[in-house]
Input
Amino acid sequence: MSNNIIKMAQKAKQASLILATVSSSEKNKALKLMAKALLAKSAYLISENKKDLNAAKKADYAQALIDRLVLNDKRIHEMAECLIDTANLPDLIGETMAVYKRPNGLVIKKVRCPIGVVGIIYESRPNVTSDCIGLCLKSGNSVILKGGKEAVNSNNAIFKVLKDVLKMTKVPAESIQMIASTDRDSMLKMLGLTDYVDLIVPRGGEALIRFVGENSRIPVIKHYKGVCHTYVSHKANLKMAEDICFNAKVQRPGVCNAMETMLVHKQAAKKFLPVMIERFQKAGVEIRGDVKTRAIVKGIKAAQEEDWPTEYLDLILAVKVVDSLKEAIDHINTYGSRHSDTIVTESKTEAEEFFRSVDSACLYQNASTRFTDGYQFGFGAEVGISTDKIHVRGPMGIEGLTSYKYTVYGKGQVRS
Amino acid sequence: MSNNIIKMAQKAKQASLILATVSSSEKNKALKLMAKALLAKSAYLISENKKDLNAAKKADYAQALIDRLVLNDKRIHEMAECLIDTANLPDLIGETMAVYKRPNGLVIKKVRCPIGVVGIIYESRPNVTSDCIGLCLKSGNSVILKGGKEAVNSNNAIFKVLKDVLKMTKVPAESIQMIASTDRDSMLKMLGLTDYVDLIVPRGGEALIRFVGENSRIPVIKHYKGVCHTYVSHKANLKMAEDICFNAKVQRPGVCNAMETMLVHKQAAKKFLPVMIERFQKAGVEIRGDVKTRAIVKGIKAAQEEDWPTEYLDLILAVKVVDSLKEAIDHINTYGSRHSDTIVTESKTEAEEFFRSVDSACLYQNASTRFTDGYQFGFGAEVGISTDKIHVRGPMGIEGLTSYKYTVYGKGQVRS
Output
């Protein structure tokens, strides 16, 4: 098995050198043929998916997980759409990012190019298979996929359909690879192939991402969790603040860009908290407040120290009253996850101070943290979100899947 | 000791949040005061350096290493100059890199910001201490330095002088840190501090860099070695090719951007090789040729398979005759180190094919590989050279020490 993984990675690397030179129109043609093939083979995909669903039901998996596993006509249609959307995105490869003319006459161009081979490690949702193949091919990268065991039949089927398509195109078939085995040993093997794999992107729960982050010798782009904050200043439009906080907590609580802690300036707290907390409670949100919050709104649970760094992914909210913008900033930098944080204020000065001082990927003035997302940012599709500061930060789209090279034009220059 | 390193890293992280908000003029003031202090304290620096030199002589270190260790008035002057040059570079922090206006009215700005805390691990040359402190402060990053044991007194002295200066400035003194211990255990400890250190840059020999790359849990920017090629096409100006090859091999053979293998098209070989090889031999270069090279020039050593991926760092050159541009490209992609490679040709088509297909950081048409260098590229100072494809590739200047954040301006937008 481990020899197979090395051979697979070697083939992916070889193919990446060819793929890097394939034209935009050939790549887009392949993506559109892939979309067609998914639709044409939907009966096959659905029957393979049934095997995974049956196994999941036998294993008594949670309904939420089973829901994520399902492939039906609607979902297959969405997968095809995503491939077509990806084909329609601009091709960044070959773009001249900068030109430097040197006193000795050398002309140095910084030219965008693919990274090479990208490894994607993911859980349950089978659409990730086609979405990531699309994004990697568009950006000129070979991709090695390793999906979760609960979706193994669905993933293999999607992969087979897409790989068959490549035979009709100039995209080398070996540029997409899937590791059949779903065990951790094969993952560990993959994470050590520094000679052939240039980047690893894990998608899934915190446990998977930590395992990848702690065991990879290849660079990893990741976020562990999203402990997102909204700070309501005394200079806020409080009605706007209420709507933003409600949206950030309630609209989809199980995702990384949902709010987990609400901070309120002491001068706004008495007016804002009773109304806001009542609205939250009516929506089923459990509030955990600090001493000052509980002095204003009675009968709510006390927040403990361990609440501040917690990602609830649920209808639970920690609330704290702060004395100043500085205290809010310090709280976020201490307990946050460097993902997404909002200030609600009408003051440009306050917002700029917040933007300069909070060490997070995405900072908002007067908008919900829920907008941290590749589609919402206009990046087209999304590979994931990074809270790292190296290579790519925030939503990772096609651009995050590129590197660059310097091409230098001389007339015989030598170094003296 | 290991608790000390954690505390040091925590202080560096705390300081980085303040440093990120310090103005350009305050940072530049600190850099200029540092330059003055080095000059004012040169007698102290030279006397501390003497201790290292005496120890090195006792330990019978190679003369080349002792040469790199020496601090004298000239070198201290160069260190001061480097700090002033760094002060005079533009400050990239706060720069708006892109603006996206979304249909819902959100305005998303991509704003350049510091990375946070950068760890620099280096060997022997004491000027790295002040150069890297300068580059990190300029780019708003805290820095944790870990130098080699042979320069411990010199490094500590430089560090002390520079740290004292910060007390007179708005740059927090804790933003520069030095790990006093020079053993591998303290390095290992540092390489695991993912909560406080954002990036590691190792500078030194391949053994050090491999140790760091294989043991770090923090992202590492690096290059292991430079196996650089020059390909002389049959469409080359052969006189120009001769000068470029000679410069790339002979001008400074011990560095990573020197040429290690010369590839020559078969149609140019008979005319080019005898003249070129004679010139190399006169300069003391040992030639190791493939069969076809030895058929043209008699009496030279045979190149073995293990010559092709070797970084000699010496007056030795592997030579191979190839049948085509494609064979040259394949050879470089197979045996090269993705560092710097040159094609000598008058044909734009050939050069573009070479640029598109060779998977290296820096590609040249008609110039010496020796130009791969931050100063030569016009990036001001240089932290190092990257053959990775993540974050930064090629010469790493100030820009490579930056990240970005997204600041989003809303008017109450929520996600539906």
